[in-house]
Amino acid sequence: MRILVTNDDGVTAPGLLALAQAMEAIPGAEVLVVAPHRNWSVTGHVKTLNRPLRVWETVLADGRTALTTEGAPSDCVAMALLGLVPRPDVVVSGINPNANVGHDVTYSGTVTAAMEAVIAGVPAVAVSLERGETPMEALDYRSAARVARRIVAWVLSEGLPEEVLLNVNVPYRPLETMQGIRVTRLGRRLYRDRLTRCDGPAGKTYYWIGGEPPAGVPEEGTDIGALAQGYVSVTPLQMDMTAYGEHSALAAAFGRWVVGEEE
Amino acid sequence: MRILVTNDDGVTAPGLLALAQAMEAIPGAEVLVVAPHRNWSVTGHVKTLNRPLRVWETVLADGRTALTTEGAPSDCVAMALLGLVPRPDVVVSGINPNANVGHDVTYSGTVTAAMEAVIAGVPAVAVSLERGETPMEALDYRSAARVARRIVAWVLSEGLPEEVLLNVNVPYRPLETMQGIRVTRLGRRLYRDRLTRCDGPAGKTYYWIGGEPPAGVPEEGTDIGALAQGYVSVTPLQMDMTAYGEHSALAAAFGRWVVGEEE
Protein backbone atom coordinates (compact mmCIF):
# COMPACT_ATOMS: atom_id res chain seq x y z
CA MET A 1 0.00 0.00 0.00
CA ARG A 2 1.43 3.34 -1.05
CA ILE A 3 0.89 6.43 1.07
CA LEU A 4 1.71 9.83 -0.41
CA VAL A 5 2.64 12.38 2.25
CA THR A 6 2.63 16.12 1.59
CA ASN A 7 2.11 19.38 3.48
CA ASP A 8 1.83 23.13 3.07
CA ASP A 9 4.66 24.24 5.36
CA GLY A 10 7.41 22.95 3.12
CA VAL A 11 9.47 19.81 2.89
CA THR A 12 11.71 20.62 5.86
CA ALA A 13 8.83 21.06 8.33
CA PRO A 14 8.98 18.77 11.37
CA GLY A 15 5.26 18.01 11.09
CA LEU A 16 5.84 16.41 7.68
CA LEU A 17 8.62 14.20 9.00
CA ALA A 18 6.55 13.07 12.00
CA LEU A 19 3.67 12.22 9.67
CA ALA A 20 5.89 10.27 7.23
CA GLN A 21 7.38 8.27 10.11
CA ALA A 22 3.95 7.48 11.55
CA MET A 23 2.69 6.33 8.16
CA GLU A 24 5.65 3.99 7.81
CA ALA A 25 4.55 2.26 11.00
CA ILE A 26 1.38 1.07 9.22
CA PRO A 27 2.02 -2.59 8.33
CA GLY A 28 2.68 -3.02 4.61
CA ALA A 29 2.98 0.71 3.94
CA GLU A 30 5.34 2.26 1.43
CA VAL A 31 5.68 6.01 2.09
CA LEU A 32 6.33 8.53 -0.71
CA VAL A 33 6.96 12.18 0.12
CA VAL A 34 6.29 14.96 -2.43
CA ALA A 35 6.12 18.33 -0.74
CA PRO A 36 6.59 22.00 -1.59
CA HIS A 37 9.99 23.60 -1.18
CA ARG A 38 8.61 26.70 0.54
CA ASN A 39 5.76 27.53 2.89
CA TRP A 40 2.36 27.84 1.20
CA SER A 41 0.09 28.50 4.19
CA VAL A 42 -3.25 30.24 3.45
CA THR A 43 -2.78 30.01 -0.31
CA GLY A 44 -5.84 27.98 -1.28
CA HIS A 45 -6.42 25.52 -4.06
CA VAL A 46 -3.80 26.21 -6.71
CA LYS A 47 -3.12 24.53 -10.04
CA THR A 48 -0.04 26.04 -11.66
CA LEU A 49 -0.68 25.81 -15.40
CA ASN A 50 1.20 28.80 -16.77
CA ARG A 51 4.76 27.66 -16.13
CA PRO A 52 6.77 24.50 -15.52
CA LEU A 53 7.63 23.63 -11.92
CA ARG A 54 11.07 22.49 -10.91
CA VAL A 55 11.11 19.11 -9.16
CA TRP A 56 14.16 17.75 -7.34
CA GLU A 57 15.18 15.16 -4.80
CA THR A 58 16.03 16.09 -1.25
CA VAL A 59 16.83 14.26 1.97
CA LEU A 60 14.78 14.68 5.15
CA ALA A 61 16.25 14.89 8.67
CA ASP A 62 15.93 11.13 9.22
CA GLY A 63 17.78 10.32 5.99
CA ARG A 64 14.73 9.46 3.89
CA THR A 65 14.50 10.68 0.31
CA ALA A 66 11.72 13.03 -0.73
CA LEU A 67 10.73 14.93 -3.85
CA THR A 68 10.27 18.65 -3.50
CA THR A 69 8.81 21.12 -6.01
CA GLU A 70 8.38 24.81 -6.69
CA GLY A 71 4.63 24.24 -6.74
CA ALA A 72 1.86 24.54 -4.19
CA PRO A 73 0.70 21.58 -2.07
CA SER A 74 -2.10 20.90 -4.57
CA ASP A 75 0.45 21.06 -7.41
CA CYS A 76 2.56 18.46 -5.59
CA VAL A 77 -0.47 16.17 -5.35
CA ALA A 78 -1.49 16.85 -8.97
CA MET A 79 2.00 16.03 -10.25
CA ALA A 80 2.26 12.93 -8.06
CA LEU A 81 -1.09 11.62 -9.32
CA LEU A 82 -0.28 12.47 -12.95
CA GLY A 83 2.62 10.03 -12.78
CA LEU A 84 5.56 11.67 -11.01
CA VAL A 85 5.50 8.75 -8.54
CA PRO A 86 3.65 5.41 -8.58
CA ARG A 87 -0.06 5.93 -7.84
CA PRO A 88 -0.73 6.01 -4.08
CA ASP A 89 -3.67 4.36 -2.29
CA VAL A 90 -4.14 7.36 0.00
CA VAL A 91 -2.85 10.94 0.25
CA VAL A 92 -2.11 12.36 3.70
CA SER A 93 -1.36 16.04 4.21
CA GLY A 94 0.15 17.64 7.31
CA ILE A 95 0.82 17.81 10.12
CA ASN A 96 -0.10 21.48 10.04
CA PRO A 97 0.97 23.30 13.22
CA ASN A 98 -2.33 25.21 13.41
CA ALA A 99 -5.90 23.94 13.35
CA ASN A 100 -7.80 24.02 10.05
CA VAL A 101 -11.39 24.31 11.18
CA GLY A 102 -14.55 26.04 9.99
CA HIS A 103 -13.92 28.47 7.16
CA ASP A 104 -10.21 27.72 7.18
CA VAL A 105 -10.72 24.77 4.85
CA THR A 106 -10.95 26.60 1.50
CA TYR A 107 -7.86 28.72 2.33
CA SER A 108 -5.74 25.91 3.75
CA GLY A 109 -2.91 24.42 1.71
CA THR A 110 -3.11 21.35 3.95
CA VAL A 111 -6.79 20.78 3.15
CA THR A 112 -6.66 21.81 -0.53
CA ALA A 113 -3.88 19.24 -1.09
CA ALA A 114 -6.39 16.64 0.11
CA MET A 115 -9.07 18.16 -2.16
CA GLU A 116 -6.76 17.72 -5.15
CA ALA A 117 -6.41 14.03 -4.28
CA VAL A 118 -10.14 13.30 -3.99
CA ILE A 119 -10.84 15.18 -7.25
CA ALA A 120 -8.37 12.76 -8.87
CA GLY A 121 -10.11 9.79 -7.24
CA VAL A 122 -7.67 9.01 -4.41
CA PRO A 123 -8.88 9.02 -0.77
CA ALA A 124 -7.28 11.72 1.35
CA VAL A 125 -6.80 12.85 4.93
CA ALA A 126 -5.68 16.30 6.11
CA VAL A 127 -4.13 16.47 9.59
CA SER A 128 -3.69 19.61 11.68
CA LEU A 129 -2.72 20.34 15.25
CA GLU A 130 -4.45 22.90 17.47
CA ARG A 131 -1.30 24.12 19.21
CA GLY A 132 -2.88 26.91 21.22
CA GLU A 133 -0.18 29.05 22.83
CA THR A 134 2.67 26.56 22.36
CA PRO A 135 5.43 28.11 20.24
CA MET A 136 5.82 26.48 16.83
CA GLU A 137 9.47 25.56 17.55
CA ALA A 138 8.59 23.64 20.72
CA LEU A 139 5.89 21.43 19.21
CA ASP A 140 5.92 17.67 19.72
CA TYR A 141 4.02 16.08 16.83
CA ARG A 142 4.10 12.51 18.12
CA SER A 143 0.59 12.30 19.56
CA ALA A 144 -0.98 13.85 16.46
CA ALA A 145 1.07 11.49 14.27
CA ARG A 146 -0.26 8.48 16.22
CA VAL A 147 -3.82 9.68 15.74
CA ALA A 148 -3.15 10.17 12.02
CA ARG A 149 -1.75 6.66 11.78
CA ARG A 150 -4.89 5.15 13.25
CA ILE A 151 -7.22 7.12 10.98
CA VAL A 152 -5.21 6.51 7.79
CA ALA A 153 -4.98 2.78 8.58
CA TRP A 154 -8.79 2.76 8.83
CA VAL A 155 -9.14 4.61 5.50
CA LEU A 156 -6.77 2.13 3.82
CA SER A 157 -8.83 -0.76 5.10
CA GLU A 158 -12.36 0.66 4.67
CA GLY A 159 -11.99 3.30 1.93
CA LEU A 160 -13.91 6.55 1.66
CA PRO A 161 -16.84 7.50 -0.57
CA GLU A 162 -15.94 9.32 -3.79
CA GLU A 163 -15.22 13.03 -3.43
CA VAL A 164 -15.07 12.89 0.37
CA LEU A 165 -11.96 13.66 2.41
CA LEU A 166 -11.36 13.55 6.15
CA ASN A 167 -10.27 16.77 7.81
CA VAL A 168 -8.63 15.79 11.09
CA ASN A 169 -7.74 18.24 13.86
CA VAL A 170 -5.89 17.08 16.96
CA PRO A 171 -5.73 18.90 20.29
CA TYR A 172 -2.21 19.53 21.58
CA ARG A 173 -1.98 17.16 24.51
CA PRO A 174 -0.43 13.79 25.33
CA LEU A 175 -2.23 10.85 23.73
CA GLU A 176 -3.29 9.48 27.13
CA THR A 177 -5.24 12.60 27.97
CA MET A 178 -7.18 12.83 24.70
CA GLN A 179 -10.90 12.32 25.23
CA GLY A 180 -11.39 10.31 22.04
CA ILE A 181 -12.51 11.07 18.48
CA ARG A 182 -15.60 13.08 17.60
CA VAL A 183 -17.09 13.06 14.11
CA THR A 184 -17.96 16.71 13.57
CA ARG A 185 -19.23 19.39 11.24
CA LEU A 186 -17.37 22.56 10.30
CA GLY A 187 -17.71 25.19 13.00
CA ARG A 188 -17.77 28.95 12.79
CA ARG A 189 -14.45 30.75 12.62
CA LEU A 190 -14.19 34.33 13.83
CA TYR A 191 -11.45 36.02 11.83
CA ARG A 192 -9.94 39.02 13.56
CA ASP A 193 -8.06 40.58 10.69
CA ARG A 194 -7.53 44.30 10.47
CA LEU A 195 -6.08 46.43 7.69
CA THR A 196 -2.87 48.25 8.54
CA ARG A 197 -1.71 51.00 6.22
CA CYS A 198 2.03 51.28 5.54
CA ASP A 199 3.35 54.20 3.54
CA GLY A 200 6.28 52.95 1.50
CA PRO A 201 9.08 54.79 -0.27
CA ALA A 202 8.32 57.05 -3.24
CA GLY A 203 4.75 57.72 -2.15
CA LYS A 204 3.59 54.12 -2.57
CA THR A 205 0.81 52.91 -0.31
CA TYR A 206 0.68 49.39 1.09
CA TYR A 207 -1.89 47.64 3.22
CA TRP A 208 -1.21 44.67 5.44
CA ILE A 209 -4.00 42.19 6.19
CA GLY A 210 -3.65 40.62 9.62
CA GLY A 211 -4.39 40.74 13.27
CA GLU A 212 -4.91 38.34 16.12
CA PRO A 213 -5.16 34.66 15.19
CA PRO A 214 -8.74 33.64 14.37
CA ALA A 215 -11.03 32.62 17.20
CA GLY A 216 -13.96 30.25 16.88
CA VAL A 217 -17.35 29.39 18.33
CA PRO A 218 -16.89 26.14 20.34
CA GLU A 219 -20.36 24.88 19.53
CA GLU A 220 -21.32 21.28 20.34
CA GLY A 221 -21.03 19.02 17.30
CA THR A 222 -18.44 21.17 15.52
CA ASP A 223 -14.71 20.71 14.98
CA ILE A 224 -14.03 23.78 17.14
CA GLY A 225 -16.25 22.43 19.93
CA ALA A 226 -14.58 19.00 19.90
CA LEU A 227 -11.07 20.47 20.12
CA ALA A 228 -12.12 22.73 22.99
CA GLN A 229 -13.20 19.64 24.93
CA GLY A 230 -9.97 17.74 24.26
CA TYR A 231 -11.31 15.49 21.50
CA VAL A 232 -9.80 14.79 18.12
CA SER A 233 -12.19 16.11 15.50
CA VAL A 234 -12.81 14.23 12.23
CA THR A 235 -14.91 16.22 9.76
CA PRO A 236 -15.84 14.52 6.51
CA LEU A 237 -15.79 17.13 3.73
CA GLN A 238 -17.46 16.80 0.34
CA MET A 239 -16.44 18.60 -2.82
CA ASP A 240 -20.06 19.26 -3.79
CA MET A 241 -20.64 22.75 -2.37
CA THR A 242 -24.12 23.06 -3.92
CA ALA A 243 -26.56 24.67 -1.44
CA TYR A 244 -29.45 22.33 -2.26
CA GLY A 245 -31.67 24.00 0.33
CA GLU A 246 -31.79 27.20 -1.74
CA HIS A 247 -32.97 25.61 -4.97
CA SER A 248 -36.70 26.14 -4.63
CA ALA A 249 -36.51 29.83 -3.69
CA LEU A 250 -34.12 30.54 -6.55
CA ALA A 251 -36.11 28.51 -9.06
CA ALA A 252 -39.20 30.53 -8.11
CA ALA A 253 -37.24 33.74 -8.72
CA PHE A 254 -35.45 32.78 -11.93
CA GLY A 255 -37.15 29.73 -13.39
CA ARG A 256 -39.59 31.69 -15.53
CA TRP A 257 -37.16 34.29 -16.77
CA VAL A 258 -38.16 35.68 -20.13
CA VAL A 259 -35.32 37.12 -22.17
CA GLY A 260 -35.43 40.90 -22.25
CA GLU A 261 -37.80 41.08 -19.28
CA GLU A 262 -35.16 42.87 -17.19
CA GLU A 263 -35.46 46.01 -19.31
CA MET B 1 -26.57 50.70 -2.88
CA ARG B 2 -22.89 49.97 -3.25
CA ILE B 3 -21.69 47.21 -5.56
CA LEU B 4 -18.08 46.05 -5.31
CA VAL B 5 -16.79 44.64 -8.60
CA THR B 6 -13.66 42.48 -8.80
CA ASN B 7 -12.23 39.69 -10.96
CA ASP B 8 -9.34 37.27 -11.27
CA ASP B 9 -8.06 38.25 -14.70
CA GLY B 10 -6.74 41.62 -13.61
CA VAL B 11 -8.00 45.16 -13.59
CA THR B 12 -7.52 45.75 -17.34
CA ALA B 13 -9.64 42.75 -18.39
CA PRO B 14 -12.59 43.62 -20.66
CA GLY B 15 -14.90 41.30 -18.70
CA LEU B 16 -14.40 43.46 -15.59
CA LEU B 17 -15.25 46.65 -17.46
CA ALA B 18 -18.39 45.12 -18.99
CA LEU B 19 -19.48 43.96 -15.54
CA ALA B 20 -18.86 47.35 -13.92
CA GLN B 21 -20.84 49.11 -16.64
CA ALA B 22 -23.74 46.67 -16.32
CA MET B 23 -23.82 47.14 -12.54
CA GLU B 24 -23.98 50.90 -12.97
CA ALA B 25 -27.18 50.45 -14.98
CA ILE B 26 -28.92 49.14 -11.83
CA PRO B 27 -31.03 52.07 -10.54
CA GLY B 28 -29.45 53.62 -7.42
CA ALA B 29 -26.20 51.70 -7.75
CA GLU B 30 -22.79 53.07 -6.84
CA VAL B 31 -20.06 50.90 -8.35
CA LEU B 32 -16.66 50.43 -6.70
CA VAL B 33 -13.90 48.50 -8.47
CA VAL B 34 -11.06 46.84 -6.52
CA ALA B 35 -9.28 44.27 -8.67
CA PRO B 36 -5.89 42.57 -8.90
CA HIS B 37 -3.17 44.10 -11.02
CA ARG B 38 -2.21 40.79 -12.63
CA ASN B 39 -3.97 37.60 -13.70
CA TRP B 40 -4.73 35.18 -10.81
CA SER B 41 -6.59 32.40 -12.66
CA VAL B 42 -6.62 28.97 -10.97
CA THR B 43 -4.99 30.25 -7.80
CA GLY B 44 -7.63 29.34 -5.23
CA HIS B 45 -8.64 31.03 -2.01
CA VAL B 46 -5.71 33.16 -0.92
CA LYS B 47 -5.27 35.42 2.08
CA THR B 48 -1.91 37.18 1.91
CA LEU B 49 -0.85 37.63 5.53
CA ASN B 50 2.94 37.54 5.33
CA ARG B 51 3.57 40.81 3.51
CA PRO B 52 1.91 44.15 2.80
CA LEU B 53 0.18 44.57 -0.54
CA ARG B 54 0.59 47.67 -2.65
CA VAL B 55 -2.70 49.41 -3.48
CA TRP B 56 -2.99 52.14 -6.08
CA GLU B 57 -5.51 53.99 -8.19
CA THR B 58 -5.84 53.31 -11.88
CA VAL B 59 -8.19 54.37 -14.68
CA LEU B 60 -10.21 51.87 -16.73
CA ALA B 61 -10.78 52.11 -20.48
CA ASP B 62 -14.05 54.05 -20.03
CA GLY B 63 -12.39 56.62 -17.76
CA ARG B 64 -13.69 55.31 -14.46
CA THR B 65 -11.37 55.12 -11.46
CA ALA B 66 -10.54 51.77 -9.88
CA LEU B 67 -8.29 50.54 -7.13
CA THR B 68 -5.83 47.81 -8.02
CA THR B 69 -3.62 45.74 -5.73
CA GLU B 70 -0.74 43.29 -5.74
CA GLY B 71 -3.01 40.79 -4.00
CA ALA B 72 -5.23 37.95 -5.17
CA PRO B 73 -8.94 38.44 -5.93
CA SER B 74 -9.81 37.26 -2.40
CA ASP B 75 -7.22 39.70 -1.00
CA CYS B 76 -8.93 42.51 -2.93
CA VAL B 77 -12.27 41.57 -1.38
CA ALA B 78 -10.75 41.14 2.09
CA MET B 79 -9.11 44.57 1.93
CA ALA B 80 -12.25 46.19 0.56
CA LEU B 81 -14.38 44.71 3.35
CA LEU B 82 -11.82 45.58 6.03
CA GLY B 83 -12.30 49.25 5.17
CA LEU B 84 -10.33 50.10 2.05
CA VAL B 85 -13.61 51.32 0.53
CA PRO B 86 -17.06 51.98 2.04
CA ARG B 87 -18.81 48.68 2.82
CA PRO B 88 -20.66 47.30 -0.23
CA ASP B 89 -24.10 45.71 -0.24
CA VAL B 90 -23.03 43.03 -2.69
CA VAL B 91 -19.77 41.76 -4.22
CA VAL B 92 -19.76 40.72 -7.88
CA SER B 93 -16.80 38.93 -9.43
CA GLY B 94 -16.11 38.44 -13.13
CA ILE B 95 -16.84 38.25 -15.94
CA ASN B 96 -14.48 35.32 -16.28
CA PRO B 97 -13.88 34.36 -19.92
CA ASN B 98 -14.14 30.63 -19.11
CA ALA B 99 -16.86 28.70 -17.30
CA ASN B 100 -16.39 27.92 -13.60
CA VAL B 101 -18.40 24.76 -13.14
CA GLY B 102 -18.15 21.54 -11.15
CA HIS B 103 -14.81 21.13 -9.42
CA ASP B 104 -13.54 24.42 -10.83
CA VAL B 105 -15.08 26.33 -7.94
CA THR B 106 -12.40 25.75 -5.28
CA TYR B 107 -9.60 26.62 -7.74
CA SER B 108 -11.28 29.64 -9.29
CA GLY B 109 -10.16 33.13 -8.36
CA THR B 110 -13.52 34.41 -9.59
CA VAL B 111 -15.44 32.14 -7.23
CA THR B 112 -13.07 32.37 -4.26
CA ALA B 113 -13.40 36.17 -4.38
CA ALA B 114 -17.13 35.60 -3.84
CA MET B 115 -16.36 33.12 -1.03
CA GLU B 116 -14.30 35.78 0.73
CA ALA B 117 -17.29 38.12 0.61
CA VAL B 118 -19.82 35.67 2.07
CA ILE B 119 -17.38 34.68 4.84
CA ALA B 120 -17.31 38.39 5.74
CA GLY B 121 -21.11 38.53 5.67
CA VAL B 122 -21.68 40.27 2.32
CA PRO B 123 -23.80 38.58 -0.40
CA ALA B 124 -21.84 37.67 -3.50
CA VAL B 125 -22.24 36.60 -7.11
CA ALA B 126 -19.54 35.09 -9.36
CA VAL B 127 -20.10 35.43 -13.12
CA SER B 128 -18.36 33.39 -15.81
CA LEU B 129 -18.82 32.93 -19.53
CA GLU B 130 -18.66 29.57 -21.32
CA ARG B 131 -16.90 30.85 -24.42
CA GLY B 132 -16.38 27.51 -26.13
CA GLU B 133 -14.09 27.91 -29.12
CA THR B 134 -14.39 31.70 -29.38
CA PRO B 135 -10.94 33.31 -29.01
CA MET B 136 -10.55 35.33 -25.80
CA GLU B 137 -9.73 38.52 -27.77
CA ALA B 138 -12.95 38.34 -29.80
CA LEU B 139 -15.37 37.97 -26.86
CA ASP B 140 -18.41 40.20 -26.52
CA TYR B 141 -19.37 40.34 -22.84
CA ARG B 142 -22.59 42.32 -23.24
CA SER B 143 -25.09 39.46 -23.02
CA ALA B 144 -23.39 37.97 -19.96
CA ALA B 145 -23.26 41.43 -18.37
CA ARG B 146 -27.01 41.87 -18.90
CA VAL B 147 -27.68 38.52 -17.23
CA ALA B 148 -25.42 39.50 -14.34
CA ARG B 149 -27.29 42.78 -13.95
CA ARG B 150 -30.62 41.00 -13.63
CA ILE B 151 -29.33 38.51 -11.06
CA VAL B 152 -27.47 41.08 -8.97
CA ALA B 153 -30.51 43.37 -8.96
CA TRP B 154 -32.52 40.45 -7.57
CA VAL B 155 -29.89 39.76 -4.89
CA LEU B 156 -29.90 43.44 -3.88
CA SER B 157 -33.66 43.37 -3.52
CA GLU B 158 -34.15 39.90 -1.97
CA GLY B 159 -30.81 39.14 -0.27
CA LEU B 160 -29.17 35.75 0.07
CA PRO B 161 -28.98 33.41 3.06
CA GLU B 162 -25.80 33.66 5.16
CA GLU B 163 -22.78 31.85 3.75
CA VAL B 164 -24.41 31.25 0.37
CA LEU B 165 -23.13 32.71 -2.90
CA LEU B 166 -24.46 32.45 -6.43
CA ASN B 167 -22.17 30.95 -9.04
CA VAL B 168 -23.48 32.10 -12.42
CA ASN B 169 -22.32 30.70 -15.76
CA VAL B 170 -23.58 32.16 -19.01
CA PRO B 171 -23.52 30.47 -22.42
CA TYR B 172 -21.82 32.47 -25.16
CA ARG B 173 -24.73 33.48 -27.35
CA PRO B 174 -26.88 36.56 -27.98
CA LEU B 175 -29.33 37.33 -25.20
CA GLU B 176 -32.34 36.65 -27.47
CA THR B 177 -31.26 33.06 -28.06
CA MET B 178 -30.69 32.14 -24.40
CA GLN B 179 -33.15 29.50 -23.22
CA GLY B 180 -33.59 31.05 -19.76
CA ILE B 181 -32.08 30.48 -16.32
CA ARG B 182 -31.71 27.08 -14.67
CA VAL B 183 -31.02 26.70 -10.97
CA THR B 184 -28.44 23.91 -10.90
CA ARG B 185 -26.07 21.78 -8.88
CA LEU B 186 -22.33 21.46 -9.51
CA GLY B 187 -21.63 19.01 -12.31
CA ARG B 188 -18.71 16.72 -12.87
CA ARG B 189 -15.63 18.15 -14.50
CA LEU B 190 -13.28 15.89 -16.43
CA TYR B 191 -9.81 17.35 -16.19
CA ARG B 192 -7.50 16.28 -18.98
CA ASP B 193 -4.18 17.39 -17.56
CA ARG B 194 -0.99 15.56 -18.38
CA LEU B 195 2.50 15.98 -16.98
CA THR B 196 5.14 17.10 -19.48
CA ARG B 197 8.77 16.83 -18.48
CA CYS B 198 11.10 19.65 -19.50
CA ASP B 199 14.83 19.31 -18.90
CA GLY B 200 16.16 22.74 -18.05
CA PRO B 201 19.68 24.12 -18.04
CA ALA B 202 22.28 22.80 -15.59
CA GLY B 203 20.58 19.43 -15.21
CA LYS B 204 17.43 20.83 -13.60
CA THR B 205 14.19 18.96 -14.17
CA TYR B 206 10.87 20.72 -14.61
CA TYR B 207 7.37 19.38 -15.05
CA TRP B 208 4.54 21.23 -16.67
CA ILE B 209 0.93 20.46 -15.63
CA GLY B 210 -1.52 20.95 -18.48
CA GLY B 211 -3.32 19.54 -21.42
CA GLU B 212 -6.59 20.02 -23.22
CA PRO B 213 -9.13 22.28 -21.52
CA PRO B 214 -11.33 20.36 -19.06
CA ALA B 215 -14.42 18.64 -20.39
CA GLY B 216 -17.55 17.95 -18.36
CA VAL B 217 -20.49 15.59 -18.05
CA PRO B 218 -23.58 17.50 -19.34
CA GLU B 219 -25.93 15.81 -16.90
CA GLU B 220 -29.48 17.11 -16.44
CA GLY B 221 -29.77 19.37 -13.39
CA THR B 222 -26.11 20.39 -13.38
CA ASP B 223 -24.38 23.63 -14.37
CA ILE B 224 -22.62 21.80 -17.21
CA GLY B 225 -25.90 20.35 -18.46
CA ALA B 226 -27.66 23.73 -18.39
CA LEU B 227 -24.90 25.45 -20.38
CA ALA B 228 -24.90 22.66 -22.95
CA GLN B 229 -28.61 23.33 -23.56
CA GLY B 230 -28.15 27.09 -23.92
CA TYR B 231 -29.38 28.04 -20.43
CA VAL B 232 -27.75 30.35 -17.93
CA SER B 233 -26.83 28.26 -14.88
CA VAL B 234 -27.21 29.63 -11.36
CA THR B 235 -25.70 27.34 -8.73
CA PRO B 236 -26.11 28.37 -5.09
CA LEU B 237 -22.93 27.40 -3.21
CA GLN B 238 -22.61 27.03 0.54
CA MET B 239 -19.41 27.38 2.53
CA ASP B 240 -20.30 24.43 4.78
CA MET B 241 -18.53 21.54 3.01
CA THR B 242 -19.38 19.03 5.77
CA ALA B 243 -20.40 15.66 4.27
CA TYR B 244 -23.27 15.08 6.69
CA GLY B 245 -24.18 11.79 4.97
CA GLU B 246 -20.94 10.20 6.18
CA HIS B 247 -21.40 10.95 9.87
CA SER B 248 -22.98 7.72 11.00
CA ALA B 249 -20.46 5.40 9.31
CA LEU B 250 -17.55 7.40 10.69
CA ALA B 251 -19.05 7.66 14.16
CA ALA B 252 -19.43 3.86 14.19
CA ALA B 253 -15.76 3.52 13.25
CA PHE B 254 -14.27 6.17 15.53
CA GLY B 255 -16.83 7.01 18.18
CA ARG B 256 -15.66 4.42 20.67
CA TRP B 257 -11.95 4.95 20.18
CA VAL B 258 -9.99 4.07 23.28
CA VAL B 259 -6.66 5.79 23.57
CA GLY B 260 -3.77 3.42 22.93
CA GLU B 261 -6.04 0.84 21.25
CA GLU B 262 -4.26 1.31 17.94
CA GLU B 263 -1.09 -0.36 19.26
Give the structure's gist in a few sentences.
The structure is a homodimer of 263-residue chains. Helices cover 26% and strands 31% of the residues of chain A.
Write the layout of secondary structure elements.
2 copies of one chain form a homodimer.
Chain A: E1 2-6, H1 14-24, E2 30-36, E3 53-59, E4 65-69, H2 73-84, E5 90-96, H3 104-107, H4 109-119, E6 124-130, H5 142-158, E7 164-171, E8 181-183, E9 188-199, E10 205-217, H6 223-228, E11 232-238, H7 247-254
Parallel strand pairs in A: 1-2, 1-5, 2-4, 5-6, 6-7, 8-11
Antiparallel strand pairs in A: 3-4, 7-11, 9-10
Could you characterize the architecture of this molecule?
The structure is a homodimer of 263-residue chains. By secondary structure, chain A is an alpha/beta fold. The first copy, chain A, has one domain: Survival protein SurE-like phosphatase/nucleotidase (Stationary-phase Survival Protein Sure Homolog, Chain: A, 3-Layer(aba) Sandwich). Chain A is 26% helix and 31% strand. The first copy, chain A, has seven helices and eleven strands. Chain A has helices at residues 14-24, 73-84, 104-107, 109-119, 142-158, 223-228, 247-254, and strands at 2-6, 30-36, 53-59, 65-69, 90-96, 124-130, 164-171, 181-183, 188-199, 205-217, 232-238. In chain A, the strands form two sheets. In chain A, strands 3-4-2-1-5-6-7-11-8 form a nine-stranded mixed sheet, with helices on both faces. In chain A, strands 9-10 form a two-stranded antiparallel sheet. The N and C termini of chain A lie far apart (61 Å). In chain A, 52% of the residues are buried. The model of chain A has no long low-confidence stretch (mean pLDDT 95). Strand 10 (205-217) of chain A pairs antiparallel with strand 3 (53-59) of chain B, so a sheet runs across the interface.
